[in-house]
Design brief:
Shape: globular
Number of helices: 1
Radius of gyration: 23 Å
Order of helices and strands: HEEEEEEEEEEE
Helix content: under 10%
Strand content: over 45%
Distance between the termini: 96 Å
């Protein structure tokens, strides 16, 4: 009887399991961001996961087009996967990241790239390749405008022309 009663004194309580996975999932999504009734950004993704904290994950890649104030497409960005950090208002693209400046016919390739929509800037600490019309520039680390109109490679490598 003593064993039976002592067993009753020990209450088993289980801690609730906190779900940390996505709250919603969407497939084949196209989104537009506008300012003053002009499309500024168009984004396509095969799959989007949205989390409780507002973060979003794009596990099957992302494609983005950027437009100027007149609605003309200026550049594109694509990546094998992406993640939006809501608290920082920052995007991260990973795996075969490519940015193309359409007007200048220049292309940036890297394995990871960050984009801040509010500053319209992109950056990375990874190795980058920029293909210009007549040359290719290599380096590690980059800060640039989202359309590649202005950029700075932190540690350039290889042979390239320098204008005075």
């Amino acid at each position: 009887m003593t064993c039976f009663l002592s067993g009753c004194d020990q209450l088993e309580t289980t801690k609730p399991v906190i779900y940390e996975g996505p709250l919603s999932e969407a497939e084949e999504v196209t989104m537009f961001y506008t300012e003053k009734e002009v499309v500024k950004v168009m984004m396509k993704a095969k799959k989007i996961f949205e989390f409780q904290n507002g973060d979003q994950e794009f596990p099957e890649g992302i494609y983005i087009e950027f437009y100027d104030e007149f609605g003309k497409k200026t550049s594109t960005l694509k990546a094998n996967s992406a993640y939006f950090f809501k608290d920082e208002n920052k995007w991260r693209g990973r795996g075969a990241v490519e940015v193309i400046n359409i007007e200048k016919q220049e292309q940036l390739n890297t394995e990871e790239l960050f984009w801040k929509r509010d500053t319209k800037k992109i950056s990375t600490d990874k190795f980058v390749t920029i293909k210009l019309q007549n040359e290719v520039i290599y380096g590690t680390g980059l800060e640039a405008d989202q359309d590649l109109s202005n950029y700075q490679i932190k540690n350039p490598e290889g042979e390239f022309e320098v204008e005075d």
